[in-house]
Design goal:
The chain is of the alpha/beta class and 555 residues long. It has 15 helices and 25 strands. The longest helix has 23 residues. The radius of gyration is 29 Å and the shape is elongated.
Length: 555
């Protein structure tokens, strides 16, 4: 055991230098069974995985992170006595300048033989000092529990971010804690969350809305009660909804729909005083009238029924598909609006959606838990597009940025091409590519990054990685982060619940952090089998379950 009391302690010597990493041999007195050292009054283990070290040589001061440790035996040539050398692998993350400021990236590499020093809180504080000024704290450093990590909110929210981790790793915990501290640090934040499982806002047995956020800061929207009227959809989205692109008559159906929509929207524009209207202008039109125009063209006959019209029988597939959509109760929120059935309803809808209604709120939670799985992509696409379009046309977009939080994003922004969620995927990818210019960013949360859109993840500048044991997911995450930091993903399997590896622009250096426990906590969806199988009900109201099933109602 060796103890020292200074701002840095010599623990070893550099033995190998590569462009993507370094290796060092620990000094013999730090290769014991308890290699304890004391720096700045704190006791730590020399070369502990996840700790920081500084390599010093002349004017070179390279900060590195320990990610691997091992031992090698060697024998004394004279007496055959065995000695054990202990080594650590290092990932260089930046340089400490002469004025104690820190810059990312390594420009001057040391040579083998350079001294390796353990780093104390004083030097860590110098590295993180710029970020601490934001006072946007999210957790404690894993190796220095007394030190609290602050991220750069400009980089985190302004350049998209991803929270990745397997089921049970603490994603909901992390998301809730992150949003709670976001609102605390920035009281005028504007966030819209797609909540797929009712974890962040939910109704209790008495029908009262409960939330993981302060009531005065949250705007709860039940997706089944929310109206997202069809007339606010773009021409491309209406095509995805009503036209099967693989149908041989799809191109004719699309052309005719364009023509009819132009007619209906010009008529509405004239009535509300608009000088002109494009195919995508969000103004009201009658869906029944659109249907009748197709039906009339499909059945048109001339010369007292002797001659068929030019489009006779061309729209059979379209009419069946449109009728089936209209008769599907799951699409009522979209196709049968009761409140938003005129153009003048749009401002009030947007006020509620953005959190600027009667009760102004920082967080709008769109509860999708009661929405059938195959309809969720349509709702998600509409929510994303409304957020994007709202700020696209908002002259104060720079003062009113919005972040869209996409829970379980792989479910509706998939990696596969040409699937049933293609329309949603393209909309979200458009926000990822162009949204930053108009004050709209995305935070994606997923347990399967390999199934999530590559375009979406490639646009993220910060990754909060929780425990991930799947080798394919680990390899994928390794490919997303800078090459020099890729080896850090090896520690993802050892992270505890709520513990994360923060990589990217929002953190000064790759950092292992214990996320603060959220207060209040989200509603856990983990089923307690033990209690359920010991104290659960002896009987169930199966008739009620059948009724809920048939009416698509979840409790």
């Amino acid at each position: 055991m060796s103890e020292h009391d200074s701002s840095s302690v010599l623990i070893g010597y550099l033995s190998e230098v590569r462009g993507d990493g370094m290796e060092a041999r620990l000094a013999e007195h730090h290769s014991t069974d308890i290699p304890l050292i004391t720096i700045d009054g704190e006791s730590i283990l020399a070369g502990n995985i996840g700790s920081y070290v500084v390599i010093r040589q002349l004017d070179i001061n390279v900060l590195a992170l320990v990610y691997k440790m091992w031992e090698e035996d060697r024998f004394d040539s004279s007496g055959g006595v065995r000695h054990t050398d202990r080594y650590i692998s290092l990932i260089p993350v930046g340089e400490i300048q002469n004025d104690s400021t820190f810059i990312r990236g390594v420009r001057h590499y040391p040579t083998p033989g350079a001294k390796v020093y353990a780093v104390g809180l004083k030097e860590i504080n110098a590295i993180f000092s710029k970020f601490r000024s934001y006072e946007f704290y999210i957790g404690q450093l894993a190796n220095h529990k007394d030190y609290h990590l602050s991220l750069d909110p400009r980089a985190l929210f302004g350049r998209h971010f991803a929270i990745i981790g397997q089921s049970g790793s603490g994603k909901s915990w992390t998301v809730t804690s992150l949003i709670q501290h976001t609102v605390r640090a920035m009281p005028k934040a504007h966030l819209i969350m797609l909540d797929l499982h009712g974890e962040y806002c939910w109704k209790d047995e008495a029908g009262q809305v409960q939330s993981a956020f302060p009531k005065e800061m949250v705007n709860y929207v039940d997706a089944m009660e929310m109206e997202m009227p069809y007339w606010m959809m773009t021409y491309a989205e209406l095509i995805d909804l009503f036209i099967d692109r693989e149908d041989k008559g799809a191109s004719l159906q699309m052309a005719f729909m364009r023509e009819i929509l132009q007619q209906l929207k010009r008529k509405e524009a004239k009535e509300i005083g608009l000088n002109a209207a494009s195919i995508d202008t969000p103004i009201y039109f009658s869906l029944a009238e659109l249907y009748m125009q197709f039906k009339n063209a499909n059945e048109e006959r001339k010369d007292f029924g002797k001659t068929k019209g030019a489009l006779f029988g061309q729209f059979d597939e379209f009419l069946v598909r449109m009728q089936s959509r209209f008769n599907d109760v799951r699409y009522d929120f979209l196709l049968k609006p009761k409140k938003c059935n005129h153009s003048g309803a749009m401002p009030d809808l947007l006020r509620q959606f953005i959190g600027l209604g009667k009760n102004k709120a920082n967080i709008t939670v769109v509860d999708l838990s009661s929405v059938p799985t195959d309809v969720r992509p349509a709702v998600s696409a509409q929510v994303g597009r409304l957020a994007y379009e709202f700020n696209y046309w908002n002259p104060k977009r720079r003062e009113f940025p919005i972040t869209l939080i996409c829970e379980e994003a792989h479910a509706y922004i998939p990696r596969e091409k040409g699937g049933q969620f293609d329309g949603t995927k393209k909309m979200m990818e458009r926000i990822a590519k162009e949204g930053r210019k108009y004050g709209v960013s995305i935070g994606v949360i997923s347990q399967r990054p390999t199934e999530l859109s590559e375009t979406m993840l490639s646009q993220c500048s910060t990754f909060i990685c929780l425990r991930t044991t799947n080798p394919d997911d680990q390899a994928y995450i390794r490919g997303l982060v800078p090459e020099a930091e890729g080896d850090l993903t090896d520690i993802l399997t050892s992270l505890g619940r709520g513990e994360a590896l923060v990589l990217g622009e929002a953190a000064p250096i790759p950092t292992r952090v214990q996320i603060y426990r959220p207060n209040p906590e989200p509603k856990s969806n983990d089923v307690d089998y033990y209690t359920g199988w010991r104290e659960g009900p002896d009987d169930l109201d199966v008739d009620q379950i059948v009724n809920f099933w048939r009416t698509q109602t979840r409790k």
